[in-house]
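Sharing a chain and its predicted structure for anyone who wants a worked example. Both blocks are below, sequence first, tokens second.
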Amino acid sequence: MDAAMPRQAARPREGSSPSPRFGGGSGAPPRPPAVTNARVAIVMLIAAETMFFTGLLGAYVVLRGTAVAWPPPGQPRLPLAVTWANTAVLALSCWTMTRAWRALHRKDARLLVVSLTQTAVLGSAFLAVQGTEWVRLIGHGLTLTASLYGATFYTLIGVHGLHVAAAVAWLVAAAALSRGSRFTLRRAASVDVCAIYWYFVCGLWAVLFPLVYLS
């Protein structure tokens, strides 16, 4: 009688679930819900940093509006041609980040890692060019203590540069987490919020560049 009884399928232990494969396999793709805890956290962070930059931009506008001449006589002008090209580099990084985001939802592990790495490289290039121009500006006399013009310039652009550097480090970590045959929901969420933050720092530059360099 024991042999005639049908075997019952082994039930997985309660609370455990297999990690779905990313890029193949029969498991369901790791699709996080529309509103995750990670997304709520990154939105709160972005809201706080938006208020911080709003304060910096407000101070810049007030100081510039009350100045007799901006920039002051004898201070070097900001490099427009190089900065336009550097802005194009950051804009290109938005495209590679979008491609990474699409690869995440298409379960294309190879394209995801490649796109995240390309975005990190473009962000690093942006910082390298900006650092080179700063060295040249300092050599021509535009320093943090030379004038309010120099102080506000290095504060605004420097704080943004720190945010880009942090985002690049995040991209490198996300690319490292995306390697391998398995991709969990937690790792997918880390790439998701990394993309949101990268768009934020690029959006900040879209405000800073015309205000500081073009006006």
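Comments welcome. The chain has five helices and no strands.
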